[in-house]
Design goal:
Distance between the termini: 67 Å
Radius of gyration: 28 Å
Number of helices: 2
Number of strands: 0
Shape: rod-shaped
Order of helices and strands: HH
Largest sheet: none
Strand content: under 5%
Structural class: mainly alpha
Helix content: 25-40%
């Protein structure tokens, strides 16, 4: 048996009229209309672009352990 979730929503008068009109014209239940509406919103949302680190791998220092050896950073950031 599939799990169900009950959702309560407050609709303003305009949205309630729209829901009623859609119910009458489509013959769908309020629940079916809400489910279909949620699916449409999910389809229209654009996924967030992957974050990029600019310059990553673009430069070669010649030091193989530059990022992992703390000795290379001794004094870094001090004036």
């Amino acid at each position: 048996m599939a799990s169900t979730k009950i959702v309560q929503a407050r609709l303003d008068a305009k949205t309630a009229r729209l829901l009623g009109r859609l119910r009458r014209t489509t013959g769908m239940s309020d629940s079916d209309l809400v489910r279909q509406g949620l699916e449409l919103v999910a389809q229209q949302r654009q996924p967030l672009p992957a974050r990029k680190i600019y310059g990553l791998g673009a430069f070669e220092s010649g030091i193989p352990d530059l990022g992992s050896n703390k000795g290379h950073l001794a004094g870094f950031g001090r004036s």
